[in-house]
Design goal:
Layout (H helix, E strand, L loop, with lengths): L42 E5 L6 E6 L25 H8 L4 E4 L7 H10 L4 E5 L10 H7 L3 E5 L5 H11 L3 E3 L9 H12 L16
Helix pairs in contact: 2-5
């Protein structure tokens, strides 16, 4: 930032008292908050390991988005930019997922309640062969960031592949032989499995910061 004109400029290095927006990648995970939310956990200093001299001080804007683009500020109320999947995930506090309950359909409502009570935006989609117009409902809800609990008695191999492709690592199939036989134990097992979906303070997965 040019302190005389207050205009941004590209730079390959920084001099004393220069101000810049940079991307940092740490060698180990860090717990942090955005500076606007917490000035203590949202600020840092850089220390020379040889002299212990303070080299720089910084404020954390946010964790680095999946697309690698550094945010430049809050969108204005009249912004025409589309809502991104990452924004939806952050609003919900978790990544989306698909849980296929065909093997244990009776668990669907119990699982929905347990996930909802645990802070997840979860919803059951029970497909009926007589209403083919509802077949794409799971796609819409998954795109909106929900944890979709899906039951379709006429599920074909192509749709199964579509479910797995959409959810990737966040696809859970209740036909997994490792799932406990008891409903209560199965629900607890699933809750533990989906805990990694969380984004934010409750998430154990930390990313890079900028």
């Amino acid at each position: 930032m040019n302190i005389d004109t207050l205009e941004p400029e590209t730079a390959e290095h920084l001099q004393m008292n220069d101000i810049a927006v940079i991307e940092l990648e740490t060698s180990s995970p860090l717990f942090f908050d955005a500076y606007e939310n917490n000035r203590t956990t949202g600020s840092f200093i850089v220390i020379d390991p040889l002299t212990n001299a303070t080299l720089a001080a910084g404020m954390i804007l946010s964790d680095l988005p999946e697309n690698g683009q550094i945010p430049t500020g809050r969108p204005t109320p009249d912004s025409q930019s589309p809502v991104t999947p990452l924004e939806r995930h952050r609003r919900h506090g978790h990544q989306p997922a698909i849980i296929l309950v065909n093997a244990r359909a009776a668990l669907a409502r119990k699982l929905e309640r347990a996930l909802f009570d645990d802070g997840f935006e979860a919803i059951v989609v029970d497909e009926n062969p007589a209403t083919p117009s509802a077949r794409n409902l799971w796609k819409t809800l998954h795109s909106a960031g929900f944890v979709v609990i899906y039951h379709n008695p006429s599920l074909g191999p192509e749709e199964r592949m579509a479910l797995q492709s959409a959810a990737c690592d966040n696809f859970f199939d209740l036909s997994d032989p490792e799932l406990p036989a008891g409903d209560a134990e199965a629900v607890e097992h699933i809750l533990a499995s989906v805990a990694r979906l969380r984004i934010g303070p409750r998430s154990e997965k930390l990313g890079r910061v900028n």
